[in-house]
Amino acid sequence: MTEVVLVTGGSRGIGAAVCRRLAKDGCAVVVNYAANRDAADALVAEMTSAGGIARAVQGDVQNEADVLKMFDVADSLGTLVGLVNNAGVVDQSQRLDEMSLERLTRMFSINVIGSFLCAREAVRRMSTRHGGKGGGIVNLGSAASKLGSPGQYVDYAAAKGAIDTMTVGLAKEVADEGIRVNAVRPGIIDTEIHASGGLPERVGDLAPTLPMKRAGTADEVANAIIWLLSEDASYTTGAILDVSGGRATLP
Ligand code: NAP
Fold first, then answer.
1. Considering only CA atoms, which residue is closest to atom 19 of ligand 1?
2. Which of 67, 76, 145, 185 would you label with 242, given CA atoms 20 to 30 Å apart?
3. Where do transmembrane segments lie in this chain (predicted)?
């Protein structure tokens, strides 16, 4: 049986690091991306030339038809055993009293509803209740859910708070159906997401203020995700793992 893992936003940053590890470990990987086809194609070429099985699938996680399409591709490759709900966006720094409805809708639609739609499709396939063989879901939260991100993106922080809550609730809902649901909550990680929010220097600027005096790498977050997906984490569900180098951990 070919085991398949779908990684939303798998083409760049943390998602790409996860895809590389999964392919190396012998999984077939569905690499979802939104717009940057070149990055997705380059990653898939890298993985397949190393002997892996991977497909790039364009799709916007907030669009139900796109989500169904990416899961169809997963089904065509083998048996779905994992979902990494990684696609996520930030926006320009703003106070809440400046935020438009359009911004808020996009923020919650991609970061929350997109993750819910993908989790729904994964449960429909992996749950023993639906005839599936079980599997794992890892959601990408953020240290922002605890910090609140004032003056920057309270909307993003709140959307990630919803991901924390969904992780706990869904984990309990499907715990006896063969599915484990966990989250990682990264701190400041060196990817392009900061530039997409208009702060390309954010990682360098914040590094001296962080407990380890450095940002994390995508690979360091991927290590935690891979562990949570693996059988080594067989009794871990509903967990939210801070991968933040000590930032925003509760006392
Ligand atoms: P990134 O480098 O900006 O990459 C984002 C990925 O998501 C890209 O593959 C992008 O596709 C895809 N994507 C964006 N919008 C999408 C949509 N609507 N539908 C499908 N795919 C979409 O991000 P990252 O830093 O790796 O972040 C990954 C996750 O970790 C996010 O959920 C983020 O909130 C979370 N996180 C990151 C940090 C950090 O410091 N980096 C900290 C805390 C949490 P395209 O290439 O097509 O644009």
1. 60
2. 67
3. none
